[in-house]
Amino acid sequence: MKKNAFFQKSLMVMGFIGWSMASFAQAYEVDRNRVYFDREPMPFADARSFVDLGYGYAKDRDNVYLDGHVLEFVDPATFRLKEGHDMHHHDNRGWRDNNRTNRGYHKTKFNVYYGDKKIDAMASSFKDLGGGYAKDAFNVFYYGKKMDASAPTFKILEGGYSKDAFNVFYYGRKVEGAHAPSFKYTGEGYAEDTFNAFYRGRKLD
Prior knowledge:
Layout: H1 2-24, E1 28-31, E2 34-37, E3 40-41, E4 51-54, E5 57-59, E6 64-66, E7 69-70, H2 91-102, E8 105-107, E9 112-114, E10 117-119, E11 127-130, E12 133-135, E13 140-142, E14 145-147, E15 155-156, E16 161-163, E17 168-170, E18 173-174, E19 184-187, E20 190-192, E21 197-199, E22 202-203
Antiparallel strand pairs: 1-2, 2-3, 4-5, 5-6, 6-7, 8-9, 9-10, 11-12, 12-13, 13-14, 15-16, 16-17, 17-18, 19-20, 20-21, 21-22
């Protein structure tokens, strides 16, 4: 009995260590004016006010985040992790994953919604392009937010890049200094145009 109990306890400890290592393998990173979680860009995070709170939580002036995703209806000005916060209790992750699954564009006869929020889009010409992108006859949207892009010429590239006739975008944000007509993705986060090379949406020196 004692051997079995010791064996079971050892398995529990090993499982906890494996879980802990997997959890802490993911981390936030601020690189100049961009924020990343587990190497994936967080397009709406504000790098200047961004704070990593630990245990997968972070916040900036606009939002609170868990594992790189926005927690809806949470005020960053008042959000705090309680002292003694139990990092093993992530019951809200199930809610978050369900919420992410249910979020998306929905079109009725007259209106367009992203999640439960109505967006300024024309339902009759609205198209969900996938990957968070959508457009109507006049506007382009990224995860429900309007982009400064030309809808008639907008197209999605690889590696998080997209472009219209005039500008290039990286996960919804304009890439400064990019020449749209000659811009192309070359792989592993890199892209180039006739004049410059880019990495993760930033022009390389």
